[in-house]
Amino acid sequence: MAESGVHAGLFPQAVLFDLDGTLLDSAPDMLATANAMLAERGRAPITLDALRPVVSKGSRAMVSVAFPELGQEARDALVPEFLDRYEALIGQHAVLFDGVAGMLEALEAADCAWGIVTNKPEYLARLILPQLGWETRCAVLIGGDTLAQRKPHPLPLLAAAERMGIDPGICIYVGDDERDIVAANAAGMASVAALWGYRLDADDPLAWGAEVMIEQPAELQQAAAWPPSRR
What we know:
Blueprint: E1 14-17, E2 24-25, H1 27-40, H2 48-51, H3 59-66, H4 72-89, E3 95-96, H5 100-109, E4 113-117, H6 122-132, E5 141-142, H7 155-164, E6 171-175, H8 178-187, E7 190-194, E8 212-214
Parallel strand pairs: 1-4, 1-6, 4-5, 6-7, 7-8
Antiparallel strand pairs: 2-3
Helix pairs in contact: 1-4, 3-4
C-alpha cells in the first residue's frame, strides 16, 4: 500500500528506475555466479536467502557474502571474476518482479517516458535490455560507470533527465535502496521506495525520505499511487 498524504491522481510525465531489485529480480543470476565460483574452489554453495539482501549493494557486497573468510583485498581481487562470470550467464535465471510489465505498459499508455539509472556497469545493463524487449522502450540508460559519479550522487539522475530533454523536477525516481532516494532528493526529484526489492534487516525505508513507499509494482499501475512531481 502506498504511504503518502498527497497524491496527484495522474501518472507522472517521466519516471526513472533503478534496475536490480526494482525492475528486475536478478538475485538468481547472482546466486548462480557466486556458487559457480564457490564450486570451482571446492566450497559449499550459499543460499538465495543469504545473498538476496545485498544484491543492491553491488558485486563487492555479494563477493563478501560468498567469501566471508577472506580479507577485503582478497575479496576485491575476486570482483572481476564475479563480473565476468555474471556477464556469461546474465539473464538466464533473472525475471521481472511481478507487476513490472503491467506497470510499464500503464506508464506508456499514459505517454510517460521511462528510463533506467543503475549502479550496475553500463555494459552489463545494456545486455539485459534486448532480453526484455526494452531496447527501444527505455528512453535512457545510465550505468554506474557511465559518468564520473554514481548514486547516491545526483549526477546520474540529472544526466538522465538531460538526455531525455526534461526538467528533473517533473521526473520521479523509483528504487529499492537508500542511495536511490538520497540521489533523487539531491536531484530535486520526487521518489518512490520500492519495498519489494533487496534490503538488509537493518535498513529502515521510513528513514530514507521517499515521498511514497510501495509494496508491489502492480500498485503503480494506478495513477493515484504515484506522488506528485516537484514541479
